[in-house]
Specification:
Blueprint: H1 18-28, E1 36-40, E2 55-60, H2 63-70, E3 76-80, E4 91-97, H3 105-115, E5 116-127, H4 133-155, H5 176-186, E6 191-195, E7 199-205
Parallel strand pairs: 1-2, 1-4, 2-3, 4-5
Antiparallel strand pairs: 5-7, 6-7
Helix pairs in contact: 3-5
C-alpha cells in the first residue's frame, strides 16, 4: 500500500507482506476461547481461518475476495458487504488487519467499537501515514530492517509477495496522531503502539455492562 509514498523502494523480489509479520502477535491477543468473532476486511481470509472462536464471521467489500476466500473453507461465514451498513451482530472478538484505513477513520472506528460486545475485545493492526518527526526517526530503523527482512525472505523463497494482485489497495492512511485522537474519544483506554514497517497496533477491551 505505502510503497509509492516511500522514497526508497526495494526491488520486487525483496518485497514482502508486512501484515503477515504481525499476524502471530494479533492471534496471541485473542482470548483462549470466544463464542463469536468478526474479521473486518478479511481479504482472502488468512486471518479469519486462524481465529479461535466457536463461530467466525468474515466480511469484505470486495466480491472477488469473498469468492476466493469462501472456496477455502466452509467453517467461516463469509459475507460480501460494507461493514458500515451491513446488518451484523455483536461479537466477543472483532479484528481488523490493515482494513481500517479503507474506511473513514472516526466512522470506521465507531462502527468497530459498536460491533464489539460488552466485555469483548477489538484488535487492530493498521497502517499510518508518515508525518511527524518521530515517524521519520522511526524510518531510520524501519527502512534498513525492511531490506534485511526482505533479503532473508528472498533467500528462503518467501519474498516477492507484498500482497495479492487482486487485493484492493488504498494509497492513503491517517496519521498516528489522528488515530490516537480518534481512539481517545471513541475507544478510551485502548492500547496503541507504534510498530515497525509502517504499522500500529490497537487493543481495546469494551467495558462490561453493569
Amino acid at each position: 500500500m505505502r510503497e509509492k509514498q516511500r522514497k526508497l523502494q526495494l526491488p520486487e523480489k525483496l518485497r514482502w507482506n508486512h501484515n503477515e509479520w504481525y499476524r502471530r502477535w494479533l492471534l496471541r491477543q485473542l482470548p483462549s476461547r470466544a463464542a463469536s468473532a468478526l474479521d473486518v476486511g478479511c481479504g482472502l481470509g488468512d486471518l479469519a481461518r486462524r481465529i479461535r472462536a466457536d463461530e467466525v464471521t468474515a466480511i469484505d467489500a470486495s466480491a472477488r475476495m469473498i469468492e476466493r476466500a469462501s472456496a477455502t473453507t466452509d467453517e467461516v461465514r463469509w459475507v460480501h458487504g460494507d461493514v458500515l451498513t451491513h446488518d451484523l451482530g455483536r461479537y466477543d472478538v472483532v479484528t481488523a488487519e490493515a482494513s481500517l484505513h479503507h474506511l473513514p477513520l472516526r466512522e470506521g472506528l465507531t462502527r468497530l467499537a459498536a460491533l464489539t460486545r460488552p466485555g469483548g475485545t477489538l484488535i487492530v493492526i493498521g497502517l499510518y501515514m508518515t508525518a511527524s518527526r518521530a515517524d521519520r526517526a522511526m524510518e531510520l530503523v524501519t527502512l534498513p530492517a525492511n531490506a534485511v527482512v526482505g533479503l532473508a525472505k528472498a533467500l528462503n523463497g518467501t519474498g516477492g509477495t507484498p500482497h495479492d494482485a487482486e487485493m484492493p489497495v488504498v494509497m492513503t492512511a491517517p496519521t498516528l496522531d489522528e488515530i490516537r485522537a480518534a481512539a481517545a474519544e471513541i475507544v478510551p483506554g485502548a492500547r496503541i503502539r507504534r510498530r515497525l514497517f509502517w504499522r500500529y497496533s490497537m487493543v481495546w477491551h469494551a467495558p462490561e455492562v453493569h
